[in-house]
Structure of Sigma-54-dependent Fis family transcriptional regulator:
Amino acid sequence: MPVIIESSHQRSLSYGLCPGARPDFSPLARNDLSMLIEQNRLLHTHAVPAMETLYQQIINTHNMVILTDAKGVIVHSLGDDDFLEKASRVALQPGVAWSEESKGTNAIGTAIAEQTATLVHADQHYLQANHFLTCSAAPISDHQGKVVGVLDVSGDQRSFHKHTMALVRMSALMIENQLFSASFEDSITLHFHARPEFIGTLMEGIASFTPGGRFLSANRNGLFQLGLSFSALQSHTFSSLFGMPVSAMFDHYRTAAPGLLNLCMHSGVRVYGRALLLLRNEVQALSGNNERTSSAATHASQAAQVANARRLSGLRYLNTGDPQLEQVINKVNKVLGRDIPILVMGETGTGKELLAQAIHNDSPRAMGPFVAVNCASIPETLIESELFGYEDGAFTGARKKGSIGKILAANGGTLFLDEIGDMPFGLQARLLRVLQERMVTPLGSGKSIPVNVELICATNHNLRDRIARGLFREDLYYRLNGLVVKLPPLRERTDLEIVVKKILATESNGGRYTVSEEVLFMFMRHKWPGNFRQLTNLLRTAIIMAGDEYEIGLRHMPDDFLDDIDMHPAVDKGVNADKMIAAGANLEEMEHSVIVKSLEAHGGNVSATARALGVSRNTIYRKVPHLK
Ligand SMILES: Nc1ncnc2c1ncn2[C@@H]1O[C@H](COP(=O)(O)OP(=O)(O)OP(=O)(O)O)[C@@H](O)[C@H]1O
């Protein structure tokens, strides 16, 4: 038996636990659980996406992914618990404690006690009741090296796989890096590695400094590469660790297309680095003098905003099973990093900006800025200076210090031009020139600055229509539409059920809310003119209305929504609801009748029917069993 397990058994014995005892799997009371989730909100927020990704790797292996707090109490669990006996299912649910004190030797508790990644397999568990499990756990530390939680994969011991531990470790590292980046609002963050291709990967070191250059913290790999302990690093500065004054680092970023920093660590080892400046408010110059906003600073500020707001979303999180969307994601995946402009079409609220952000996050430019500009919301008179920037003195008045503009702010990253159809005609030629020449000339400046951006545009207009009406330049259209994708409106999506579940989980911060069959059916009939924006708002309010009742029913729906459904039934053509009600049909019968009618209308094609009704094919098969 490994030493670590042996010492854990001794500790378990000293806690007075008996190997044959029945473990106590009673979870925390609901209020205490809500409090626990609240206390661990940051950890929870950053861990959930990594848990979902991890779960994708082990799906169908009879394993669960578990997140606990620093004391081993489960905060969130995810996955298939079918492998557990009914009585044990509760054991891996939120609110149950897995500390060594309560369950004896187990991966979660022992990882906390030993502060290291731990595998506990089958009879290595102290309690016999847990011998059927195999568990791999890795502690998650915050930016000060303090363990704040544990990530664990637990499953039937017969499903043991030797790669699981490595996956858990990597995912825990990912969460630590996310937590690290979220911990400093006013700081310089340096991402570094001896090999440039490792920057932006899990292997990179990350170190944070105050804007003046004093050391704040480093992540696990950062400490390893620097070869110093956390406490020894406290007396260091950016310059003493990397042989470059912060002012020189900023000079480097003042060039239009800065490459990686070439640094020499205090140990003599050469590393490459990319620095970001994260500032809470408007960006200021750093190096002691009052220089105006620098491109590096703006670049970094944008990156910080992205980092904080949406760093977690990637294309795979958007793929929830709708075939139209899946096609979009497949197409987009093929052009990632290929410098092909993407044009996203779709009604309002279908997630065009979210898709653009996900494309950016999955692209090789993810470490660069993501800059979104809504061409419809900026007054026509301002859009030119917003986009192209202006020199000192180009305007008289308060903002005379100059601005680099959104295009240059996106340098090295992605520029997202939303509502491109509303771009003023006169500016379209200027934008086209920038795209062709890859140079920007700020207003009032005779100097052109090279720029390197990936372009994603979105529109809910028919651009060809606008070209025909003389409102949009044809040459710009052909420059923008390298890849054109169309996001389906919500009423055409077949994954509505999953989408609803996902939004409920996000909006209730991992709570267990569901919608009743009736509500789901109603959702499937709705036209959703506001798409995701409307659905999200509706569910957010419904959660509040439902409160302690975890199932959202019709009574939790706002009246205007119910009225709307009556006025705009999306799919009841051919089914006479009045007659059915008069005949005393219940909802299930009506639903059945709607599906059968729709099947008839689609010549018996289940996929087309599912698409039309906004449900999955499985739902159709489930509701009309004779189709099988
Ligand atoms: N797949 C999704 N799951 C959950 N929420 C989503 C999804 N897609 C979009 N949303 C949410 O819906 C809202 C609208 O999304 P977004 O701004 O990306 O849409 P849009 O198509 O760009 O809208 P508009 O055309 O009005 O600018 C946002 O709050 C976003 O977070």
About this structure: The radius of gyration is 28 Å. Residues 318, 346, 348-354, 418, 458, 460, 503, 532-533, 536 surround adenosine-5'-triphosphate (CB under 6 Å). The chain has four domains: 3-163, 184-306, 312-486, 491-627.
